[in-house]
What we know:
mainly alpha
Amino acid sequence: MTFKNLPPAGQIRYCRDKLARVDELEKQVRGMPSTQQSRETLRDLATARGEYIKALKRLENPSLWQRINRWVNEWAAEDRAREAARKRRRGCTSCNGTGQVTGAGNWFESCRSCHGTGQYREYL
């Protein structure tokens, strides 16, 4: 699961975990002898820490537009779930949910649209 797919609480937890990991790495690097590579590593860790802190602040104190966008996305997800449930409950339009073709000479012939299930099938 990617960072963007996590819920807001999961994103906050992820940022805090990464900040703790950056702190651990910094302690390890500071314990080593000072070289050009260790100074570059400390600079990279400071940059990463700043990015995680910015992301954490943005998540903990979202702007009005971010809150509205989150509410709209949550509402849209609930609406998609309701629509999918409604489609699953809908009967086949060809056989009216019976699974058998009416008007055909043989009552035991199954409906070609739903293959005799009586349930609506969505074709892509």
